[in-house]
Amino acid sequence: MKNGVQMSRNSKLVTGRKKYLSAIIDLYDRSIVAYILSSKNDNKLVMDTIKLAMKRNPKVKPVIHSDRGFQYTSHAYRDLKNKFGFKVSMSRVAKCLDNQPIESFWGILKAEYYYLHSFVSEKELIRGIHNYINFYQHERIITKFNSLTPSEYRNKAINEA
């Protein structure tokens, strides 16, 4: 059920300077488990995002699926996996469809929010991304889930368990 398989990926956003958004999505309900914005697309960004996800759900030992980016093939990632006990799954080479759920989230975020706004400052971008993710979790319905939001779908499953 919840927290079984999660996907991690980074996406680039630009407001004068490049910003990178790293997120982990739960495949059960499409909720965003953790996310961090940074000015660097490096190992630290991915490691900090995973640490945040593990801190929020310390009992969960998910499978974390990712592409084969340098962050996910690094020694630091392997060490983090050993520390927290999650399993690793990686997409096949040149098979972007293996990452469809997280890529779909990036497309939704960019189409429904990012491309529709001109950001004056990094602070405005950060606040806006935070607000959009909150909207996505608690207000944006997903047809696949009988028109429930990710948080409603998760809560329904918990209450029925």
From TrEMBL:
Pfam families assigned: rve (PF00665), rve_2 (PF13333)
Molecular function terms, GO-annotated: nucleic acid binding
Domain Integrase catalytic, residue spans: 1-158
SUPFAM superfamilies with a match to the protein in the record: Ribonuclease H-like (SSF53098)
Any GO BP annotation: DNA integration
InterPro entries found in the cross-reference section: Integrase_cat-core, RNaseH-like_sf, RNaseH_sf, Transposase_IS3/IS150/IS904
PANTHER family assigned: TRANSPOSASE INSF FOR INSERTION SEQUENCE IS3B-RELATED, TRANSPOSASE INSO FOR INSERTION SEQUENCE ELEMENT IS911B-RELATED
Protein name: Transposase IS3/IS911 family protein
Protein source organism: Listeria cornellensis FSL F6-0969
